[in-house]
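Reopening this one. Same input as before:
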Amino acid sequence: MQVASLDTIDSLADGLSSYLGKDQVNNVRRAYFYAEQAHDGQFRRSGDAYVTHPLAVASILSDMHMDHQSLMAAMLHDVIEDTGITKTAIKSQFGNTVADLVDGVSKLNKITFSSRAEAQAENFQKMAMAMAKDLRVILVKIADRLHNMRTLDVLAPDKRRRIARETLDIYAPIANRLGMNNVRVEFEELGFAALYPMRSNRISAAVKSIRGNRKEIVSQIQTSLEACLEREGLPGRTIGREKHLYSIYEKMRSKRKSFSEIMDVYAFRIIVDRVDTCYRVLGAVHSLYKPVPGRFKDYIAIPKANGYQSLHTTLFGMHGVPIEIQIRTEEMEAMVNNGVASHWLYKSSDDLPSNAHIRAREWVNGLLEMQKHAGNSLEFIENVKIDLFPDEIYVFTPKGQIFELPAGSTAVDFAFAIHTDVGNSCVACRISRRLAPLSEPLQSGQTVEIITAPGTQPNPAWLSFVVTGKARSNIRHYLKNQKHSESVALGKRLLNKALAGFGTRIESVSNENFDAVLQQTNLKSVDQLLEEIGLGNRMSYMIAQRLAAQGNVAAANEQSETDQHGTLAIRGSEGMVMNYAKCCHPIPGDPIVGHISSGRGMVIHADDCNNITDIRDNPEKCVAVTWDPDVEGEFSVELRVELENQRGIIATLATTITGAEANIEKISTVERDARFSIVNLSLNVKNRVHLARVMKRVRLIKPVSRVTRVKSRKVKKTIKSTLGTH
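Same output, byte for byte:
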């Protein structure tokens, strides 16, 4: 287990003086003594004085050459939370920037959460907000978590496992997203050892036992690579790469590979002076050993989302041994290890932000947009986890702009990556110039063109295949808002209908009456009340009764009967809160009844549907409804066609139906015997008149002996009995 190498403020200050000015080092010292005083009498689980923890966190940041304000914030990061000192006090002592950093890192501990998962999510949300103001917040937080992971042994096993799980789920991917490879690897190794100690020990022992056998091959390959570079006059150093325990475990688990398969690959890194040399070295190693086709990746021309740059290639070495090689410059190597922290490492006063810094800031801004659209903190963290997947694909717009997306992304993810409005109005796509389904997973290198149409909206079905957090949160947000406005509109109509029975309308009800009912129902606003009615969570009749009773108690009793006579007109454009029952497929022209279903809104059934026989006359469950004369839309209906078997009869049937301007959704055949068949059809029609026209046309087909409209329940029985005749 690693511990901080710098264990006193003097040794830390000596190290800092190599890259910070004298005044800056003194400010860090001052912050240390302030923290020492604030934490006086507090101890860690290990028995050490509490101040050793902030000192160790500052030491980790000093290894990354972070600026003096980050180091001061590291010294003070637990002061607000664990002592009585306020943010204002820190501000007056150390200035606004340090106080903001400390406040950003301090945990959100004053709210009581309904679950630990929610507490973790809320915490992370606060971190995202603070990161948006200053990226250094996350770096201090990461260093804090790293020291806690290094000293995890003193905790109880269950707490140890919980912290390790959170580190592997959230902190290691964040470190990866920020390009901090060294920190990510240490998080993964420490997290793996704490979460699965036996698995970690077994893999560690296996690695040690085969290390001896590998030594000779590794040195042979290294010697031949170095000799090759020397021959070509290419300056560079070659390092053998050790595989980390957690990455071995993950490959065994996710790629179903055996330990020996993973360990049979030899990995090397060649570090050179310039980008130009990287490509020349690539040519040299390709002439030394044959490259494996399809395994070359150029992350220098197209860097990864976290700023990672390198050339990757796999070679067939001597005796067919696979050799993985990464070629990069010294600057890229520092970037790989410190990521976004290297922005401060190389920063001078007039420097522009590095690429990694810009990418990290874009990612954080994306987090904030997601947070705005997420329904709650748990949904937000779920979206963030999706977004932290490390594998990327690179796709192009028709104009050649590159977009990085997680592996498995679809055209819908791409559309939302371009802009939220493009995602919301997306209707189709072209992948490498061919029309393709929106759900098709994209591959690296494809050109994707999004086709949009005004007035369209996201489809709920997209949620089953989108991969990015941005797409998921935007679709959910849009649908939630749409459902809200539709359920408020339906709730208003239902309440007006119920109030008509009491001789009044919503407009006539006083604010005092509404306030009294809102108080009784524990709701905040009239809109919320209408939404609850529209969603079927509250009965319009009961609310109307309460509203009427507030104004006139007698009216409630007198008028309760007349409510039954008013009917609600169905227009077909009510949206997601109006559903049509799948059991009886009602269409305009059928006598209908509305069933209020909790959470779904209103479900329209045919008047004679068996499923609502028991509740048909219950005013709390069912509402009298009728079709609006101007009803619009297409409605699903099922037909059963009995016909004589003839070649091409299904094609004739389909042509006849589409000729009558009806859409076929589904067609299935149940063969009765050699001569006769039964065909079940699911169609979309406008109303009963349209259906009658379709059925009339179908009857005119010569081999057709019978056409009947069916309810789903009966269709199933018919199919069973038909199958039984074989």
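So the earlier flakiness isn't reproducible anymore. For the record, The longest strand covers residues 635-644.
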